[in-house]
Amino acid sequence: MNALEITNLTKEYKDFKLDNVSLRLPSGCIMGLIGENGAGKSTMIKLIMNAINRDGGEITVLGKDNRADFKVTKEDIGIVLDETGFPEIITAKQLNAIMKMTYQNWEEETYFHYIERFSLPGKKPFKDYSRGMKMKLAIAAAMSHRAKLLVLDEATSGLDPIVRDEILDIFLEFTRKEENSILISSHIVSDLEKLCDYIAFLHKGKLIFCEEKDRLLENYAILHCKKTELNGLEWSAIKGKRENSYGVDALVDRKKVPRGMNIENASIEDIILFMVKGVDK
């Protein structure tokens, strides 16, 4: 079963359109959602959570239409948004009492395990938390009610590298259970390259690609060559290029580049940046 299925999803505003997006997140996997500010990542997450109405398309979450009795499905979803939304006067200890009444499967012991692991103060009001502390509290809550799907919007932003690395390990532990999956949006591409099985790239409301990370790294390379050499390649081999005083750097399909040309491995960040150049040219 797929943890998440999105088919021809469309949402239109006056100055923005999420345009006919389709993707699949298999159970037990982690998908990274990448895109510039305003690309549509948060809009898509709101649509998945049925927080706003769609204009077209279908969304299935954990095998169920997200418009049909979604209150029940939400029991199995852990959500962390860029703006956590907890009341400013609340403490971590008080949040536990609230969540006990919110989720049927709330696990107090698990919650306080994460509070201790993240070194969060139990009695300090939320308004006095740093951004990083706020995100850690939201992650602790999301991980403490036996969720099968985590939906994370910039969940690692504002965290120092050591804590961020620890949280990525926690997410990896979560998906060791075959029924557990994660959709995570982030601007920190290196985190997603380390963490994810799949990468989905949104640009100006359009899904540029949704592919297995390893296949992306296998299929694409950076070519360093002269302009005349690049012009000799078939057009479909070139996905984006950047000219400089020495020649051209281009993202290319490895299979369509003759042997002997100067290519090197591309990172996920390379692929995204060059793809944008290709789309916008």
Automatic annotation (TrEMBL):
Classification via SUPFAM superfamilies: P-loop containing nucleoside triphosphate hydrolases
UniProt-listed Gene3D superfamilies: P-loop containing nucleotide triphosphate hydrolases
Keywords, comma-separated and alphabetical: ATP-binding, Nucleotide-binding, Transport
A Pfam family of this chain: ABC_tran
ATP-binding in keyword set: yes
Record's signal peptide: none
SMART domains per record: AAA (SM00382)
InterPro entries assigned: AAA+_ATPase (IPR003593), ABC_transporter-like_ATP-bd (IPR003439), ABC_Transporter_VariousFunc (IPR051782), P-loop_NTPase (IPR027417)
Record domain ABC transporter: where: 1-229
GO molecular function, one term: ATP binding
Protein known as: ABC-2 type transport system ATP-binding protein
Organism, scientific name: Kineothrix alysoides
Lineage summary: Bacteria, Bacillati, Bacillota, Clostridia, Lachnospirales
